[in-house]
Amino acid sequence: MATKAGEKVEFEEFGVAIIVTKGGEGDVSASAGGDGLKVGKRYEDEATGIQVLVTKPGAATLLCNGAEMVLQEPKKTKSAD
């Protein structure tokens, strides 16, 4: 199943909502557990290139094709010193 950019997905059983920021060939799902999801955090699946943004937090873990998605670290910029 293809996941499209701009697609909004809700996982009502966990109270979590996301928006897809970069689509790809894969299925995004959620499971119980983990550290929970926080608003504004971005997650990605390196195998498919799919990226999502959390719009509603909750106690869940995001999965893509059954593999756990990883938290994207903020890009570092050079200091203007």
Extract low-pLDDT stretches: none
Helix content: under 10%
- What is the oligomer described by this structure? single chain
Extended strand count: 10
* Major beta sheet, strand line-up: 2-3-7-6-10
Report on the biggest sheet.
5 strands, antiparallel
Structural class: mainly beta
Q: Would you give an account of this structure?
A:
By secondary structure, this protein is mainly β. It has one domain. The protein is built from no helices and 10 strands. The chain has strands at 2-3, 8-11, 16-22, 24-25, 28-37, 42-44, 51-56, 58-64, 67-68, 70-71. The strands form 3 sheets. A 5-stranded antiparallel beta sheet has the order 2-3-7-6-10, with no helix packed on it. The radius of gyration is 13 Å and the shape is globular. The model has no long low-confidence stretch (mean pLDDT 92).
Topology of this protein?
Layout: E1 2-3, E2 8-11, E3 16-22, E4 24-25, E5 28-37, E6 42-44, E7 51-56, E8 58-64, E9 67-68, E10 70-71
Antiparallel strand pairs: 1-4, 2-3, 3-7, 5-8, 6-7, 6-10, 8-9
Short synopsis of the structure:
This protein is mainly beta and 81 residues long. It contains no helices and ten strands.
